[in-house]
Amino acid sequence: MQQREQRDSDKRRHVRYQLVNMESMASYTNINPANDNDCMQGSIENMETCAKRRESDDEEGMREYSIAFLGSCQVGKTSIIQQFLHHNIDNAYTPSTTVKKYHKAVFMDGKIYDLTLRDCPGVTSFPESPLAEFSTYKGYGMHNSQVIVLVYDTSNEDTFNYVRSLKDQILKYKSNPLIVVVGNKQDLAADQRVARTDAQQIVKGWKCPLVFCSAKYNWHIINLFTEILKVIECQADAKKEDAHRYSSHFINFNRCKVS
């Protein structure tokens, strides 16, 4: 009886996984930064084409990435994700109390990226380990995410200081983190409290990208996600180069010499 219930449970999980992937396939977005025009110009492609691309991508290895969005309350994390997914936002502010996960498949430069976007509520601190995260922030997936997106409000200096503190904790507790910093609410230029040049100078020392955007007007949202994918690709290329260098050294080291 227990074995049958276990099989039924496994079957339900498998069906849910298939549905998630079908939703991702139905929403393949073709990113073309050259045609951005300060707003998202995604094109939805047909299912058959997406299926062929997914089969081709499976042969090379599925590119699945988790991206966690962190920041203080009311900085626009949810709005950024909503604009990217639906090209629209909910103007009525509702505080996020639990982490929300969204799936999106993106096609760029001939490659398919299966993205899991994690909209995380404000955290008091970055957990020291996956175990600590499980105890305090179960389901957030911060340690398991390949990219951490730190969002601040350009009209609120406290949110930038929060990002600075969180960045230091991430570097301390997470190995080889990929971080992208986002200055949102650029539409509130008159109320700007964090000067653009100051933010650029500070983040430059962090050696990570800084993107300014306005989720309200869908300005540079596509640029943000393009930058995220570029960061992912840079790390992938670096790993390939290191692996090639190691294998070449290994082959040369073990090469037979004829004297």
Report a brief summary of the structure.
The protein is of the alpha/beta class. It is built from 7 helices and 7 strands. It has a 7-stranded mixed beta sheet with strand order 1-3-4-2-5-6-7, with helices on both faces.
Describe the SSE topology.
Layout: H1 2-26, E1 29-30, H2 47-60, E2 64-71, H3 77-86, E3 100-108, E4 111-119, H4 130-136, E5 147-153, H5 157-173, E6 178-184, H6 196-204, E7 210-212, H7 221-253
Structure characteristics:
259 residues, disordered C terminus, alpha/beta, seven-stranded mixed sheet, 7 helices, single chain
Give an overview in words:
The chain has 259 residues and is of the alpha/beta class. Helices cover 44% and strands 17% of the residues. It has seven helices and seven strands. The protein has helices spanning 2-26, 47-60, 77-86, 130-136, 157-173, 196-204, 221-253, and strands at 29-30, 64-71, 100-108, 111-119, 147-153, 178-184, 210-212. It has a seven-stranded mixed beta sheet, sandwiched between helices. Strand 5, helix 5 (157-173) and strand 6 (178-184) form a beta-alpha-beta unit. The longest helix is centred in the last third of the chain and has 33 residues, at 221-253. The N and C termini lie far apart (71 Å). The model is unreliable at 11-28, 34-48 and 253-259 (pLDDT under 50).
SSE pattern:
HEHEHEEHEHEHEH
The helicity comes to 40-55%
Name the beta content range.
Answer: 15-25%
Shape: globular
Look at the helices and sheets and give the structural class. alpha/beta
Number of strands: 7
**Average predicted confidence as pLDDT:** 79
Weakly predicted, low-confidence segments: 11-28, 34-48, 253-259
How would a crystallographer describe the biggest sheet? 7 strands, mixed
What gyration radius follows from the Cα positions, in whole Å?
21 Å
Number of helices: 7
Distance between the termini: 71 Å
Spatial ordering of strands, largest sheet: 1-3-4-2-5-6-7
